[in-house]
Structures are given as structure tokens and as C-alpha cells.
Design brief:
6 helices, disordered N terminus, about 140 residues, mainly alpha
Amino acid sequence: MPISGNLVGLRGLLGLAVLFSLGRGSIGYGTSVTSLPNDGTLLLRHCQITIKVMDAAGNAAEKDILPAQFCGDYIKGYADALIAAKDICVSDDVSNGAMVRAYSSFMQQHPDFLKRYQGDGVRAALKLNYSCDRRASGH
């Protein structure tokens, strides 16, 4: 297997490990997922903060760093797991920030996902924006 195949496999395993640890209730930093709502509302709020931090170009408020990191890590982990499962196709030039923006936009356009499990919105947003069918057709 070529090195790139090993890296994709490793990314997928790491993504699955992140999803597993999120499902088990621990996100680190002394916060338990079980003490937080796990619907789309909190993740969207954190991702909106992520966008604010990205747009601040190095001038982000310290209080925004942890929520931004949570969103970025969650989206990245979920994307890695979906890539490993071949549910989505993401080119190498797509940044995690672009996926965060795609998720945020999707959630604003589909508020019915706010009350569902947060992973449902991430999966739907990423599948809509990074479907393998779309990439194969050149869109």
C-alpha cells in the first residue's frame, strides 16, 4: 500500500477515535459532553465562534479559542471518519475552515437539524457539500 493510503487509513482511524471519545462523554479540558447539550444548537454556536476567530486574523478573544477549537476538532474528526468510510470525498485543497463554514451555512438553511443529534447535521452538511458523486461530476 502506498504511503498516502496509509495516511488516509490513519486519519480515518483517528477520526473514528475522536468520534468514539465524543460519544463516550469526554472532550478533555475538564468538560464532559454529557453535561452539554449534544444537539446541533451548541455545535453551531461553537462553529459560528470558529468563523469569527478565523475572520479575526489573529485578533481573536481568548474566550473564543476553546469553543472554536471544539468545533474545528469535531468537524475534522467527523470528516475524517466519513472520508475513511468513503461517504464523502474531500480534495486536499479543502481546509477545515471551509468545512466549518459549509456546516454553519447548512445549519442556518436547515434549522430542523438544530434539535437533532449534532453529528446528524455535520454528516448531512458534509455529504451535501463533499459528495463523491458531486466531485466525480466536476462540481
